[in-house]
Automatic annotation (TrEMBL), chain A:
Belongs to the SusD family. Keywords: Cell outer membrane, Membrane, Signal. It comes from the Bacteria. It comes from Sphingobacterium arenae. Coiled coil: none annotated. Residues 359-513 form the RagB/SusD domain. Pfam families: SusD_RagB. This is RagB/SusD family nutrient uptake outer membrane protein.
């Protein structure tokens, strides 16, 4: 009997030893290996598709909290904005610890993913044109992000190496990159993109138009006016993109953004969405931030309804300065980019249903009621929610025209500048400018592009940001208490996130923080 | 107690049996499969003249159902004569053997014959002479009977009952009952059983003698389950603590973790979630790992289970907690956070025990904070608007909504807590049947419990069936099976938001619309949604099935050797259905559509073990060796389908095919472990002990080249009290022991060493295209085992016949190659990475003492306490040095060298800025009066990140104190717990959405806020537009507490009364759980914030019946 036991035991032990190595190997069943992304044409394609998903989240993130704050800051914290509460640009949370870190952290993460595609695509056996399209989109992303980072922070890191577990901890000295080097990379990336992207692309993808547009901006930041002008002209001369005609001005920010004026749109879709990791993305609150809560007005004459944006936050509004820029009578934009000043009673139980709301009912406290932005209005939003799945136009042709005008003006070509800027004015139903000067350019840009993510950067580039914000930006609540938090001069650069300063060790914080 | 009783070695008397009876076991089986019939109840009539003794015995067997153990050859041939009518067995036997040279022992249905020690034959062997005068027997002998119980009133079986000065003895039956005849003039009866203090009772004129035996408080002969075997407690030299299962079962909870609270030194239990059906967090000797799991592994009958609640507490025979490396090493691979060993009950040979326990009771909660009353909230709101309006109050019309003003005028305020919370019921019913023959033994346990939550709509039901079978096949082969089958159902519509809204929704509102439906915005403020709405409109049901099948075979081919093959398969699956109707908040927000999800999860784990034991002794050397080979694997699958926009509520979640959008998610993973273990236990004469063990473990979750690790351990022990020089001392136990060894931690998710992608699709031209991209985690192909090395020293002591016992332990655990999830610099492109870094130390001591303060006839008073202290310290992290040569902290992860790994690192508040203070020249020049003043901790006149301070979070010490009093049939027990020095962050003191930031939007936990008229206020001035800067620094609160954890009062009926009710024993009791808690922490529980499910205070009444 003993022998049988010992033999049995020996057998079991031997068997288990032999199968150990195989048993202990790991093979995930629901996740694909990274090797797939970087060694096959299909993988590279999927890698590029994912970059769009990440960029949507970077620029127009779902939900609330820091993500929303990181975007709203640039929409609202300009000379055109008025803010009532919460995200409070230039307020006490404008510090390295409390300012959202995500532009920095997400930005570099996406840059790394682009780096990986740019590094690995040349090694994959595939059709050259397809390869170049893939690399072009990845370099487009990288160029766009580096331009965004340097214009926000001024002092940034420059990293073109794709991280692998092997090289992740190679010794590295954390010091601000030379801006010249940064712009060299941005320009090289965007030039490659311009070369290999097509004008006509699928809705949602980068095309040659947006590549020229961003490349032109990069040149403006470097004060290379001629170069800038070339790129804006390229977009303007090509038939792919154009202003929508005057009679279609309501469609510029309509439900369907798949039109000529859009250079790049971030798409969203409730059915394939739910959160930003999914194809359709998650819902944003952008459309609710700028609406007032008319249904809170006393008297009960107003209820939640689609035409006034349903459930609203009433956090941020256009300010008096911006209001003063509009010719309310003639400027079509005043009627299309903003909600009407006069409300129509929409509570069917009110005897005044369908009539204009009585003048003494407008308690303008920036929450219940104020003049409001309609650019992000969503006709399909449900009245009980702050969530919207509307597509978001991120770069558009009107800006190309205005920047092209600036570039031409800087090159002492005022007639070309006037030609461009007047296209924008004419479309809005206004008469031509006869002369071009910086102030009227900034004003026209304000009228056309207010709350579109570009104002803050335009002012910063021209060097008037702090001055104009302190002159016009409003902060307050309950009428009568405004401008508590002035913009300090150091706030022209964002604080480097404290968590990253802690991690990098040697990287200096921007002055003043 | 149950365990001790079942595990106790055969009583010493068996050694005295001179007639080795070799009756076939089968015969015994035939006679013994029956429910505990009272052998004494059988009346016997005999009319035997000059019959042989064995014929008489046979007749008695037939009539009474007892079995005699004897050897026919040894039974004398001389004829006996006995005539009697309707006499009880005891009397019959007493008469029969009175003048025969045999004594006898009755144990259950077995009567063992033995030779009387000093038998002097009487002259006459004619029994008839006495039997004729049956009526006179009472005069010359007396029969006494009674019941023996332990201090908790549970009947004790197998107690030896003897008459002092004679060889007469018997044993109590399964119900603790005995009956014994006492010869004339003998007046003292002695009760004894291993594990209990013997008791001598004078008989006097009594015929009923009930006694209560007190257990040795620290019984050295108690058997302790250690890894892959059992040891006598006196032989254990590693840190193993046995938990008293009776104490555990006294806690009326259905979470075993909660029941273990305060029951063992060094074991720190906190609430994970107090909702019905949830479980607790258990930490043994602090937490070690920075990122990997810190939960102990739970092994039931040698098999790892999914969670501690997979086992019905009533089925548990013993719980052992392994705390040091020497004890854990045998489970080394997963043992670094400690091991909880559960042994379930098994049936005993020839014994049938039926127990029925039931309790029913109610639960409520106690709030340790105030919310603002309607008037106070209105004032808060006015103040908040005033601060924004240049210190001018605004008219109420500009502040309040129409509804708020209306309710302010009418005074019909809402008490949200009253609307929400209810008195909830809790109940538990348990039946266990244990029955066995010499060859087959079966234990079955049946349990049903149902617990309602204090929040309507939440409840939990669980049913468990356990069947443990042992079968002897041959003298060298035994097989057995342990099976458990558990079903549970949990309803919880999601109470976090509801509780939050109960605190934050102001009383200025109306619950219902005019048509009786719930008003979505009761106050007209859109931030505050009706807390009651989703309780009514959302359902979330979880159905779990959990089964364990464990079979084993023991081969014992020769003396001292045992080979066990142990195979188990555990499977768990869960079906979750979640549905929010079109009327729910989500439904409203989706435009009147239903939404929900259906999820299926399953997990299975199998394990195969080969265990060899060989024990031998020579002279005074005892040697035991164990070799184990083990392999196990666990797989998990998950499928979830989120359905959005279901057009109507007709089918609930079953209508998901009609949803506008169905988004599936899947997940699956697999992990495996292979182990080889060897252990040698040696002792010399029970005085000097040495144990050494070693194991090799391979785990799938680590990098390809680091799968294997080796963990050795060694322990030494010295039983000082067994030395000659300790004789005659009041010290009856003194043991010094020390151990040193290491164990591993592999509690990380699978695939962390591999580079895998996440799916991030996008829409181009409105068509979905697949996107893959590496996720946030940087994979680490070099991931390896985290190792904890522990030095443990301890002194066990027992004085004055174990009236005072205790243990003091000191330990130091160094954990190296810590599995830590690190934040990474952004340019790396990954947010986090799991790495092996640095070293963490856990050092502490544990002391527990128990004293039997009073032990008089009717009175027993027992006092005990335990104190545990653990200090966690990061010794090193990455090894980077600063310019002074000190190691650099990891501020991003809040890990600081020389401090605990669990700390807060933030600014410290230092009051409120007052009017007239020179704010402009302070370190916070932009602050306003009424803002928070922060501590400029480095005094440089500026507020910088260097002013942040480290605040430890861990408890400084924790302990328990218990008192048990018995007086006759009454038992009273009280357990107190305390945790001291723990700090928690209470969001309700500062957070906007939790109503803490004094914006006048939400109601919240009441504080004394600053206003120009109340400069003493210690919270900042309310502000409508925004949170006050740095208000979030106000959340840290001392969460120390003292709690009366359980208070039990029981009464055990006297045996006479129990008899009259036709039961063996009966105890009724009432227990209060969490009856009182003393803490400063503003919440329902010192361990939870106010939006988390509150821990209930429960009071139950119960009955325990034994048949």
């Amino acid at each position: 009997m003993k022998r049988i036991f010992l033999q049995l035991l020996f057998g079991v032990t031997l068997l288990s030893f032999l199968s150990c190595e195989k048993f202990l190997a790991e093979e995930p069943v629901t996740e694909v290996s990274i090797d797939f992304i970087y060694t096959t044409p299909e993988g590279l394609e999927s890698g590029v598709n994912a970059l769009y998903n990440l960029m949507r989240n970077y620029n127009i993130p779902e939900g609330e909290g820091d993500a929303l704050r990181s975007s709203l800051f640039f929409l609202v914290g300009t000379d055109l904005g008025l803010n009532r509460t919460w995200h409070t640009p230039y307020g006490p949370n404008h510090t390295p610890v409390a300012f959202p870190a995500r532009k920095w952290t997400r930005g570099y993460q996406i840059i790394d993913r682009a780096n990986a595609i740019i590094t690995n695509a040349p090694k994959v056996d595939m059709l050259e044109t397809r390869r170049n399209q893939i690399i072009a989109q990845a370099r487009m992303v990288r160029g766009e992000l580096y331009l965004d980072l340097i214009r926000m922070y001024d002092n940034i890191l420059l990293d073109t190496v794709a991280t692998t577990p092997e090289n992740a901890f190679d010794p590295k000295e954390y010091l601000p990159a030379d801006p010249i080097e940064v712009f060299k990379l941005i320009d090289a990336d965007l030039d490659f993109a311009i070369q290999h992207l097509a004008w006509n692309v699928d809705y949602g993808r980068y095309g040659k138009g947006v590549a020229h547009h961003i490349r032109g901006k990069s040149a403006l930041w470097q004060k290379k006016w001629t170069e800038a002008s070339t790129h804006f002209d390229a977009v303007i001369l090509d038939p792919t993109h154009d202003l929508l005609p005057r009679e279609q001005i309501a469609q510029v920010f309509g439900q369907n953004l798949n039109h000529k004026e859009a250079l790049l749109v971030y798409v969203r879709d409730e059915i394939t969405g739910g959160n930003d990791n999914l194809a359709g993305g998650g819902p944003t609150w952008i459309s609710s931030v700028f609406n007032s809560r008319v249904y809170e007005l006393s008297g009960g004459e107003m209820i939640r309804s689609i035409e006034y944006g349903g459930e609203s936050l009433g956090w941020s509004f256009p300010n008096d300065y911006l209001r003063s820029l509009y010719d309310a009578e003639n400027d079509l934009r005043f009627r299309t980019y903003y909600y009407p000043l006069q409300l129509i009673v929409n509570n069917p139980e009110s005897p005044n249903f369908g009539l204009p709301l009585a003048p003494d009912r407008y308690d303008d406290d920036y929450r219940r009621y104020h003049w409001s932005l309609k650019k992000y209005h969503d006709d399909e939003k449900r009245i009980g929610t702050l969530n919207s799945y509307k597509d978001h136009i991120f770069y558009r042709y009107a800006e190309t025209l205005l920047l092209g005008a600036e570039a031409a003006w800087r090159m002492d070509n005022p007639s070309k500048a006037l030609g461009y800027i007047n296209q924008v004015r004419n479309r809005a139903g206004l008469t031509n400018f006869a002369t071009f000067d910086l102030e009227s350019y900034l004003e026209e840009s304000a009228r056309e592009l207010a709350f579109e993510n570009e104002r803050w950067f335009l002012l910063k580039r021209i060097g008037v940001l702090v001055e104009r914000v302190n002159q016009y930006y409003e902060m307050g609540s309950n009428a009568g208490n405004k401008a508590i938090y002035p913009m300090a001069s150091h706030m022209v650069r964002l604080p480097i996130p404290q968590s990253q300063i802690d991690l990098m060790g040697t990287f200096p914080q921007n002055d003043g923080y | 107690m149950q365990l001790k009783r079942l595990m106790c070695p055969l009583p010493a008397y068996t050694k005295k049996i001179i007639m080795r009876v070799k009756l076939t076991i089968i015969l015994v089986t035939v006679f013994c499969i029956q429910l505990s019939a009272n052998v004494f109840g059988q009346k016997i009539s005999l009319n035997e003249r000059d019959a042989s003794l064995w014929e008489v015995l046979k007749k008695i067997e037939k009539q009474s159902g007892v079995t005699f153990f004897y050897n026919k050859r040894d039974v004398q041939e001389d004829p006996v004569t006995i005539i009697l009518q309707e006499e009880p067995l005891n009397r019959v036997l007493a008469l029969l053997f009175k003048n025969l040279p045999y004594g006898y022992d009755i144990q259950d249905q077995v009567v063992v014959l033995n030779q009387k020690e000093k038998f002097v034959p009487t002259k006459s062997r004619d029994v008839r002479r006495q039997t004729i005068h049956t009526l006179n027997v009472e005069a010359v002998q007396q029969t006494i009977n009674g019941t023996v119980r332990d201090s908790l009133g549970v009947p004790l079986a197998g107690v030896t009952v003897s008459i002092k000065g004679t060889s007469l003895r018997t044993h109590t039956d399964a119900r603790g009952k005995y009956r014994i005849a006492t010869p004339e003039g003998q007046s003292v009866v002695v009760f004894s059983i291993v594990g209990y203090v013997s008791s001598e009772q004078p008989i006097g004129e009594k015929t009923i003698v009930d006694v209560m035996l007190t257990a040795y408080i620290d019984d050295l002969d108690e058997v302790v389950v250690v890894g892959y075997g059992t040891q006598k407690k006196s032989d254990v030299i590693s840190s193993v603590v046995s938990v008293n299962t009776e104490d555990v079962n006294r806690v009326p909870s259905n979470d075993l973790g909660e029941m273990l609270r305060g029951k063992a030194a060094g074991v720190y239990v906190t609430v994970n979630d107090a909702a019905p059906g949830s479980s607790s967090n258990i930490l043994i000797r602090g937490s070690r790992s920075l990122t990997a799991g810190n939960a102990p592994i739970v092994i039931a009958d040698g098999v790892p289970v999914g969670g501690i609640n997979d086992v019905n507490p009533n089925d548990i025979a013993s719980i052992e907690i392994l705390k040091d490396a020497a004890a854990q090493a045998i489970y080394g691979a997963r043992a670094s956070n400690g091991v909880i060993l559960i042994t379930t009950k098994r049936a005993k040979e020839d014994r049938t025990i039926v127990d029925f326990n039931t309790f029913y009771g109610g639960q409520t909660v106690k709030r340790n904070f105030d919310v603002y009353s309607a008037k106070e909230f209105a004032q808060l709101k006015r103040e908040a608007y005033r601060a924004d309006n240049n210190n001018q109050y605004l008219p109420d019309e500009a502040i309040f909504t129409d509804i708020e003003r209306e309710v302010l005028a009418t005074g019909d305020f809402i008490d949200w807590e009253k609307e929400l919370l209810r008195i909830a019921s809790t109940q538990n019913h348990n039946l266990s049947v244990s029955t066995g023959t010499a060859k087959t033994r079966i234990y079955s346990g049946f349990n049903y419990s149902k617990r309602q939550g204090v929040i309507p709509g939440t409840d939990f039901q669980r049913g468990t069936i356990r069947i443990n079978v042992d079968q002897t096949i041959t003298d060298w082969l035994k097989v057995g099976a342990n099976t458990s089958w558990q079903l549970s159902k949990n309803n919880n519509p999601g109470t976090g938001e509801t509780l939050l809204r109960t605190v934050t929704t102001s009383p200025l509102g109306k619950i219902y619309n005019d048509d009786g439906t719930y008003r979505i915005y009761p106050t007209g403020v859109q931030e505050s949604v009706n807390p009651l709405l989703d309780l009514a409109e959302v359902s979330n049901t979880r159905n779990d099935r959990n089964d364990i099948m464990n079979i084993f075979a023991d081969f014992t081919p020769f003396q001292g050797f045992r080979y066990r093959v142990n195979a188990s398969r555990r499977s768990w699956n869960r079906k979750t259905t979640h549905y929010a109707t079109s009327e729910s908040l989500q439904g409203f927000r989706r435009g009147g559509l239903g939404n929900g999800a259906m999820q299926f999860e399953d997990e299975e784990e199998w394990q195969l073990e080969n265990i060899l034991n060989y024990n031998t002794s020579f002279n005074k050397h005892n040697l035991a060796s164990t070799v184990v080979q083990s392999i196990s694997q666990r797989r998990y699958n998950n499928f979830r389908n989120n359905a959005s926009n279901i057009p109507n509520d007709l089918l609930g979640i079953w209508g998901l095919p009609s949803a506008e959008s169905n988004i599936p998610t899947v997940g699956a993973n697999k992990r495996g472990l292979v182990s080889f273990v060897g252990r040698i236990q040696y002792d010399y004469d029970g005085k000097y002990y040495l144990t050494a063990s070693a194991r090799a473990d391979g785990s799938t979750v680590f990098g390809a080249n680091n799968k294997w690790a080796y963990f050795p351990a060694v322990a030494l022990g010295w039983n000082i009290h067994r030395e000659a020089f300790m004789d005659e001392s009041f010290v009856n136990n003194l043991k010094l022991r020390a151990s040193y060894g290491s164990v591993g931690n592999e509690a990380i998710n699978p695939y962390r060493s591999l580079s895998t992608a996440v799916q991030r699709d996008y829409l181009f031209n409105n068509v979905k295209r697949i996107g893959y991209v590496p996720g946030d985690f940087l994979p680490n192909p070099n991931l390896r085992w985290e190792t904890s090395t522990t030095l443990n020293t301890a002194l066990d002591f027992g004085f004055w016949n174990n009236r005072l016992t205790g243990t003091f332990e000191f330990y130091n655990t160094r954990t190296t190659d810590l599995l830590a999830e690190l934040s990474l610099q952004a340019d790396i492109g990954y947010a986090r990475m799991l790495r092996n870094i640095g070293e963490v130390e856990n050092q502490g001591f544990e002391l527990n003492m128990n004293g039997l303060i009073l032990d008089k006839n009717d009175w027993q008073v027992n006092l005990g306490f335990s104190i545990s202290r653990n200090r966690n310290k990061i010794i090193s992290l990455y090894g980077d040095l600063d310019e002074h040569g000190n190691e650099v902290d990891d501020i991003a992860n809040q890990w600081f060298i020389g401090h605990s790994k669990n700390v807060y690192y933030q600014y410290r508040p230092a009051g409120i800025w007052q009017q007239g203070e020179d704010i402009a020249n302070s370190h916070m020049p932009t602050a306003q009066p009424g803002d928070i003043k922060l501590l400029d901790s480095n005094g440089d006149g500026k507020l910088t990140d260097a002013d942040r301070v480290i605040v430890p979070r861990d408890p400084k010490w924790f302990g328990s104190f218990n008192l048990a009093v018995n007086y006759k049939g009454v038992d009273l027990a009280a357990d107190f717990l305390t945790v001291q020095g723990v700090v928690r962050n209470n969001a309700f003191l500062y957070d906007y959405a939790s109503g803490g930031s004094l914006r006048g939007v939400f109601n919240g936990v009441k504080v004394d806020y600053w206003t120009p008229e109340n400069p003493e206020g210690n919270w900042p001035r309310p502000l409508e537009s925004n949170d006050r800067p740095y208000i979030w620094t106000l959340g840290l609160q001392d969460a120390s507490y003292v709690r009366l954890h359980t208070l039990t009062l029981g009464y055990t009926l006297s045996s006479q009364f129990a008899n009259r009710l036709k039961v063996g024993s009966l105890r009724i009791y009432s227990t209060a759980h969490n009856l009182a808690t003393w803490t400063k922490y503003k919440s329902y529980s010192p361990e939870k914030n106010p939006n988390e499910y509150p821990e209930a205070i429960s009071i139950v009444g119960g009955i325990q019946v034994g048949f």
